[in-house]
């Protein structure tokens, strides 16, 4: 069996559907918190830890570890299913002014994306306090702030926004250098019912890329994954270095990545044939040959020159490098994936069926501020938090908790539980039987070729 086929089998082992925090369960554990000693009762709350009764947060595996990043990552990072890094971790960036949106993102990430391996990054006192109030795995990364940030909700393009975006990139680089595969995510998006980490890994691995980004002239930084290979580290080094030079001009991290580094620090591709051609072009430019899986040493495991050392465990396919020879730190290969937008759907519909596209999430782009973004996600059927019934601590309005819409509207998650869990995201492109006549939005013609590993 080939290395690539072995990796495909590993990545396609999906976890069962995540259990729900029902109103009945909530009432039971608040009446008798000792019930949470049983894993079957505690596990559902990993998707909504803010709903735990007071004192029960001590049962969470990350409790008390937020002051030490290495300890927090050791607890939170998911073991890499391919054994190519120290682990996989999602990095979320939290501002208390967007608490409801963060709760919705985290709930969908865990409940539908199957990701419990995440760290919530904060950078000011109120956000740190609000994050802890929600019982999340918080880490204060204010040391990575490149400039002073006011205690207001950042607006796209303003100095606060620029500083926070560069904190995000510099902190992501730090975690990458520690040897972790990173998934970096905004909170103004909600995740679809596909195993997120395995879907992204499979999509990267299929073409031996360095990472994957949403495609948008040429990339969007709202939800991306990058591997800790020499090429991944070189890209992050170039990104941060260019940012230190251009940040003062008001350029965001996405503007620098798209306008200054495309074609010099990385190259993009999407379809497998296109990616194969790009990898060979890079190899020729470097005077090498595209042999097997790039970025590896002759033994087929990750070389000691990489960030993770020789950590392959049972799968000899190493961290992707996007073309070139062993230990090369030249141009990265980033595989983009399609991100459907309102114009693709003929305007926003009241509901977009989660099984109808190979997408991994909906991103509320094009509007600013929490409420307009919430409205957009609600119209798409990707809003799971009952933000009309949130409650705040008396005299401390920044400490907010919200219940689930599921308690009031049982139908709100129904379609998300009907998707075919035998497939990964970015591969599913057919509506399940019985749904095609319900008038739900179906797949786009230009996305139907995403059927990898059939």
How does this structure look, described?
The chain has 454 residues and is an alpha/beta fold. It has an 8-stranded mixed beta sheet, sandwiched between helices. The longest helix is centred in the middle third of the chain and has 19 residues. The N terminus and C terminus are likely disordered.
Quick one: biggest sheet? 8 strands, mixed
Count of strand segments: 12
Rough outline: globular
Note the gap between the termini: 16 Å
- The H-and-E topology, N to C, reads as HHHHEHEHEHEEHEEHHEHEEHEE
Gyration radius over CA: 21 Å
**Overall mean pLDDT:** 79
Structural class: alpha/beta
- Number of helical segments? 12
**Strand percentage:** 5-15%
Helix content: 25-40%
Unreliable residue stretches? 1-9, 289-328, 342-350, 428-454
User: What strand line-up does the widest sheet have?
Assistant: 3-2-1-4-7-6-9-8
How would you describe this structure in keywords?
454 residues; disordered C terminus
Offer a concise description of the structure.
The chain is of the alpha/beta class and 454 residues long. The chain is built from twelve helices and twelve strands.
Give the helices and strands, then pairings.
Elements: H1 3-11, H2 23-31, H3 39-42, H4 69-76, E1 88-93, H5 99-111, E2 118-122, H6 125-133, E3 138-140, H7 159-177, E4 181-185, E5 189-191, H8 196-206, E6 211-214, E7 223-226, H9 230-246, H10 253-259, E8 266-269, H11 272-285, E9 332-337, E10 361-363, H12 370-379, E11 391-393, E12 396-401
Parallel strand pairs: 1-2, 1-4, 2-3, 6-9, 8-9
Antiparallel strand pairs: 4-7, 5-10, 6-7, 11-12
Helix pairs in contact: 1-8, 7-9
């Amino acid at each position: 069996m080939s290395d690539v086929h072995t990796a495909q089998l590993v990545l396609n082992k999906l976890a069962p559907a995540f259990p729900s925090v029902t109103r009945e369960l909530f009432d039971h554990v608040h009446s008798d918190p000792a019930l949470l000693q049983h894993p079957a009762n505690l596990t559902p709350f990993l998707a909504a830890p803010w709903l735990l009764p007071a004192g029960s947060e001590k049962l969470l595996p990350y409790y008390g570890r937020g002051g030490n990043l290495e300890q927090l990552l050791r607890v939170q990072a998911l073991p890499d299913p391919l054994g190519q890094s120290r682990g996989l971790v999602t990095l979320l960036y939290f501002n208390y002014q967007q608490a409801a949106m963060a709760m919705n993102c985290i709930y969908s990430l865990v409940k539908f994306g199957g990701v419990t391996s995440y760290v919530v990054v904060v950078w000011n006192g109120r956000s740190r306090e609000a994050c802890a109030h929600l019982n999340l795995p918080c880490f204060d990364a204010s040391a990575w702030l490149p400039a002073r940030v006011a205690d207001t909700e950042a607006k796209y393009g303003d100095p606060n926004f620029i500083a926070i975006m560069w904190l995000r990139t510099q902190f992501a680089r730090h975690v990458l250098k520690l040897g972790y595969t990173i998934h970096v995510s905004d909170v103004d998006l909600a995740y679809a019912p596909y195993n997120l980490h395995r879907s992204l890994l499979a999509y990267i691995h299929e073409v031996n890329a360095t990472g994957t980004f949403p495609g948008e002239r040429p990339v969007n930084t709202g939800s991306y994954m990058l591997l800790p290979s020499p090429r991944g580290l070189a890209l992050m080094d170039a990104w941060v270095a260019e940012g230190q030079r251009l940040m003062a001009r008001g350029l965001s991290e996405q503007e620098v990545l798209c306008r200054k580094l495309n074609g010099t620090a990385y190259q993009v591709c999407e379809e497998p044939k296109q990616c194969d051609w790009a990898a060979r072009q890079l190899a020729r430019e470097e005077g090498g040959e595209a042999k097997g899986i790039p970025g590896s040493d002759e033994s087929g495991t990750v070389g000691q020159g990489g960030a993770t050392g020789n950590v392959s465990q049972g799968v000899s396919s190493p961290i992707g490098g996007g073309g070139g020879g062993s230990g090369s730190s030249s141009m990265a290969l980033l595989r983009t994936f399609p991100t459907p937008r309102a114009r693709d759907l003929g305007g926003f519909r009241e509901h977009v069926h989660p099984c109808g596209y190979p997408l991994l999430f909906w991103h509320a782009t094009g509007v600013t501020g929490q409420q307009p973004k919430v409205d957009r996600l609600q119209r798409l059927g990707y809003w799971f938090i009952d933000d009309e019934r949130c409650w705040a601590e008396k005299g401390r309005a920044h400490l907010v908790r919200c219940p689930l819409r599921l308690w009031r509207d049982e139908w709100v998650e129904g379609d998300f539980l009907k998707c075919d869990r035998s497939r990964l995201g970015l591969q599913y492109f057919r509506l399940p039987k019985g749904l095609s006549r319900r008038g739900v939005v179906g797949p786009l013609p230009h996305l139907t070729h995403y059927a990898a590993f059939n």
